[in-house]
Specification:
By secondary structure, the protein is an alpha+beta fold. The chain has helices spanning 41-50, 61-65, 76-91; strands at residues 2-6, 9-13, 30-32, 37-38, 95-105, 115-127, 134-145, 150-161. It has one domain (19-164): Thiol Ester Dehydrase, Chain A, CATH 3.10.129.
């Protein structure tokens, strides 16, 4: 917290959410991530084409209408990217490195217009054998639609900075007067 003087007034500057550090995680804790995201047709088509995925069900509505799904499917790589992104504020805001995803499952499809929500459970944590400034955290994340249908689950392992380690606020410049 910082005190600033503006003329005759004192203003308190409070830091925003800084994310969790390795010490903050407890095994079994569940974090319900705050933001939902409605997936649009543009999201699906752009992501599919940007990644050079040529599977018709993601960008050809006529083709998709002739499949068992009857309409375009959202690219599953978009789904894992979205749900991982939703978890960052709670899980990996202070990440050193992402070590991997395991046990990725897609039990239900995502369609254009679905809103995706997610939550993450802390499964394991341990010290890093090579980097004392971080710890290793394994979590299980679940993404689900506005109807509660689970559309993705996965485990993710990340190296998270310990409190007082890493770049912290040192990377952020202050505005010039």
């Amino acid at each position: 917290m910082t005190m600033l003087m503006l003329g005759s007034q004192t203003m308190t500057v409070k830091p925003g959410w800084q994310g969790r550090f390795f010490e903050d995680f407890e095994i079994g804790d569940v974090y319900k991530h705050p933001l939902g995201r409605t997936v649009t047709q543009s999201d699906n088509i752009w992501f599919t084409l940007l990644t050079q995925n040529t599977a018709h069900p993601h960008f050809d509505a006529n083709y998709a209408a002739h499949t068992g799904f009857g309409k375009p499917l959202v690219n599953s790589c978009f789904t894992i990217a979205l749900v991982t992104g939703q978890s960052v504020t709670d899980i990996s805001q202070n990440v050193f490195a992402n070590l991997g995803w395991d046990e990725v499952r897609l039990p239900s499809p995502v369609y254009e217009g679905d809103t995706i929500y997610s939550e993450t459970e802390a499964l394991e944590k341990r010290d890093s054998g090579s980097r004392p400034e971080v710890g290793i955290l394994t979590v299980r994340t679940k993404g689900y639609t506005q109807n509660g249908d689970v559309v993705i689950t996965f485990k993710r392992t990340v190296m998270v900075y310990r409190r007082g380690q890493g770049p912290g606020g040192r990377h952020r410049p202050e505005p010039k007067a």
